[in-house]
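# nightly structure sweep
# worker-07 picked up a monomer target from the shared queue
# config: single-sequence mode, recycle default, output format = structure tokens
# input follows
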Amino acid sequence: MCPQSKDHVRHVLSGLDQFASLDSETLHELESGASLYRISRGEMLFHKGDTPDGMHLVIDGEIKLFFLSASGTEKLISTIRDGESFGEECVLLAGSRRFSAQSTRDTVGLRLRRQVLDEAMAADSALARVLLCSLSTRMDALMESMENCVQRNSTQRVAHYLVQQTPNSSDHYELQLASNKQEIAAQLNVTPETFSRVLGRLTRDGLIRSQGRCIEVMDRHLLRACAG
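# output follows
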């Protein structure tokens, strides 16, 4: 992991939606505990069980959060992309990391140290609201993912995932899968083979056309109905 110059840390912070509303004093305090870094594709940012060093923001790139099951199978929690953050819970909770983080492509990230975050949050309630909102959004996404896995079969899960990627209100559209099929399958709690079979079934039924990571949705309303 290669650290980056701190010359533009404050500019980066103020340009992120989460921190745009903070005053200059709070931004200056956060800057003192912030560091930019570059991590290569496939490189681990941290492992489950590590002591938290702060929260992270993805400036450019992609980080996957995951843990390994007892059988050694990777279980994807979520994928963090440009402008998104993770690890806010380390400010509020003591203990070790409950998941691992690994880059899925070359990534530039920003680390905000725990102590500085804690002090800034105590001094500025706006920052506390920012972190609470971020945690709540991730909790809501996890609940939706759990509901998807519990209440839908494999075909419905894949259809629901594709519907969620809808770029607009068009009935017919193309989308580029942001992750590879193995990672999406793990997120949906199905095997990669099952994920491929479902894509094939949806293709035979005329709902989609699939070519690698490119998916052409033929009828969004029918796909939504398939998702249940």
